[in-house]
Amino acid sequence: MERALATSRDRFQAPRPTRRPIRLMIVDDSMIARAVLSRMIESDGAFEIAAVAGTAEDAIDALAQVRVDVVLLDLEMPGAGGLKSLPRIIRAAAGAKVMIVSSLAEEGAEETVAALAMGAADTLPKPGTGRFNGRFSEILLSKLKALGYAAAPEPTRRASVDLNQPLRPMPADPIDVLAIGASTGGIHALGVLFQALPKRIGVPILVTQHLPVPFMSVFARQLGIAAHREAIVAEDGMKLLPDRILLAPGDAHLTVDFSDSPTVKLTKTPVASGCLPSLDPMFGSVAAAFGRGALGVVLTGMGRDGAEGASRLAAGGGSILVQDEASSAVWGMPRAVLEAGLACGVLPPDKMARRIASRTEDQSGCK
């Protein structure tokens, strides 16, 4: 085995952070890439490199001996490679988050979206000419902190939200539209939700997933296969049809125009969260168009995108379900909605599908 377990180093260190360090494993066949990533990560006292590996096989062996919070995984490696080995790495990681750091994260949308659908939590292309404007290290460390603190054992984390707090009542009457938003870890969560959802629920489905433009057509194709229904990237003027999934493009908000019949209206208006696309305009528009018949879903993701739109949705008589902490890659967006007192339920995606199905006119497919 290539040097899989990192050796400790005695050197002067800045005062330790109040939280324990986030333990990382770097899996990359390039010695240079491992060295560069190691230097970037070790510049921040929030991290500890617990292991490195040059192949997926070595990583799986090392994970049997060392506990980590996050695995940085390249997809292009000798042997079985990162993508084919991803399910075994996720199992061996025993709850650690897997983040793809690979040139394929920009150039190979098919492989990257597949990795995210399998359960990788996030993705980041390796730095190259013109990428990140010199901010790669900053972006990398920010993503690692979000994933690492989400994976940390409960005693070292922030006090959890009181899940016994009152939830908003969920109406029992049938819904007219389903609007779903997600970010980090969302592609996997969407797959789980749609696999558990009946093939026919009789209402249009809108999805806003934070994802770059080049990935959208691949994401639509893979989601359509997983969901057993048509999934397409939304364009201006498209009609909202029952059981068809319309996806927000990577560079515009997906909203609804209801002047005559419900149709797609794409906008690029700046929003408070800074996200493009954002859940907030989507939720706000379905609240205005469908009122009590609108059901919003907020899946895993960092930040607060969706909280403002959920407020408008609730004010219009609609209802909101949020993903629970245990099944989320990063419990940021769902938590923000729950803390605002806007959620009607806190559930993993498969159980969320049952709640959604219970509010459709045809419940024959509800399991």
UniProtKB/TrEMBL annotation:
In Gene Ontology terms, what is one molecular function of this protein? protein-glutamate methylesterase activity
Catalytic-site annotation from UniProt: S183, H210, D305
Q: What is its EC number?
A: 3.1.1.61, 3.5.1.44
In this UniProt entry, the residues modified to 4-aspartylphosphate are: D74
Tell where it localizes: Cytoplasm
Tell me if Transmembrane helix is a UniProt keyword of this record.
no
Any idea which UniProt keywords this protein has?
Chemotaxis, Cytoplasm, Hydrolase, Methyltransferase, Phosphoprotein, Transferase
Q: How is it modified after translation?
A: Phosphorylated by CheA. Phosphorylation of the N-terminal regulatory domain activates the methylesterase activity.
Q: Which SUPFAM superfamilies match?
A: CheY-like, Methylesterase CheB, C-terminal domain
Q: Name one Pfam family in it.
A: CheB_methylest
Q: Which residues form the Response regulatory domain?
A: 23-141
The source's domain of life comes to Bacteria
Q: Which family does it belong to?
A: Belongs to the CheB family.
Q: Which NCBIfam families match?
A: PRK00742.1 (NF001965)
Looking up HAMAP family in the UniProt record yields: CheB_chemtxs
Protein task: Involved in chemotaxis. Part of a chemotaxis signal transduction system that modulates chemotaxis in response to various stimuli. Catalyzes the demethylation of specific methylglutamate residues introduced into the chemoreceptors (methyl-accepting chemotaxis proteins or MCP) by CheR. Also mediates the irreversible deamidation of specific glutamine residues to glutamic acid.
Name recorded for this polypeptide: Protein-glutamate methylesterase/protein-glutamine glutaminase
Which organism does this sequence originate in?
Answer: Sphingomonas hankyongi
Q: What is the lineage of its organism?
A: Bacteria, Pseudomonadati, Pseudomonadota, Alphaproteobacteria, Sphingomonadales
